[in-house]
Amino acid sequence: MERRMVSDTDILLPWQLDKWLKSDVKILFGDNKEFSIRYDSSAGVYVVRDESAGSDVIKIGSAGIIVDGNVSAGTIKSGNVLLKKSASPTVAVSGATPTEVTVVEPDANHEQVIPLGGSVTAGGTFGTNETVTVTIIAHYSDGTTGSITKTFTATGTQDLTSADIVALVKDGVYITSIGAEASSSLTSTSATVSVEIAAMQG
């Protein structure tokens, strides 16, 4: 047998096993009302709010469970975790600072990419004794970066090896994005570069 205390609600309304939260009504809980829950009718989500900090911490709706702005992994459908992206960094001439372009990054519902493989293709026209260096750069969640390089003396394609993928992984952090930049050994160049990365996002 279930035992419970009688409240004003029980006196005014019949006792029902199923209760519901009226739209935009806030219920406070915690020893000192540190948290609250409400249904936000404008967004169509239930919101758990840290009243002490004055910020929403959990939102629950049809899109999944959002914690501190990030959709939790348990709510991500398996159909949208694979990525295959490419980018073409401009080949900087000798003495110039190369410009990094983003090759792959997670979408709005994810926060990391896990590289699976990829390739680097050099095209255009190579000059005499020209070397083009392509740097693939992993940006980590702790604000640091790691990189690997591929060099070309003629047009062609080089696949990323398993050792390359391992070199892009840093223990204890995750990759927030992967970029690439390219530079030539000559003061003028007609070489081009394209980088393709296959990855999972989580």
Protein described:
Strands 1-2-3-4-5-6 form a six-stranded antiparallel sheet, with no helix packed on it. Strands 8, 9, 11, 12 and 14 form a five-stranded mixed sheet that branches. It has 202 residues and is mostly beta strands. The longest helix has 7 residues, at 162-168. The model has no long low-confidence stretch (mean pLDDT 84). Strand 5 and strand 6 (70-71) form a beta hairpin. It is built from two helices and 15 strands. It has helices spanning 8-12, 162-168, and strands at 26-29, 35-40, 45-50, 55-61, 64-67, 70-71, 82-87, 91-92, 101-104, 113-125, 132-140, 145-152, 156-159, 175-184, 190-201.
Name the descriptors.
single chain, 202 residues, mainly beta, 5-stranded mixed β-sheet, 2 helices, 15 strands
In short:
Helices cover 6% and strands 48% of the residues.
- Total count of helical runs of at least 4 residues: 2
Rounded mean pLDDT score: 84
Segments where pLDDT lies below 50 for 5+ residues?
none
Task: Tell me the span between the first and last alpha carbons.
Answer: 45 Å
- Specify the structural class: mainly beta
Give the overall shape: elongated
Q: Report the biggest beta sheet as strand number plus sense, adding barrel if it closes.
A: 6 strands, antiparallel
Beta content comes to over 45%
Helix content: under 10%
Please report the total strand number as a whole number. 15
Cα Rg = 26 Å
Strand order of the largest sheet: 1-2-3-4-5-6
Secondary-structure element order, N to C: HEEEEEEEEEEEEEHEE
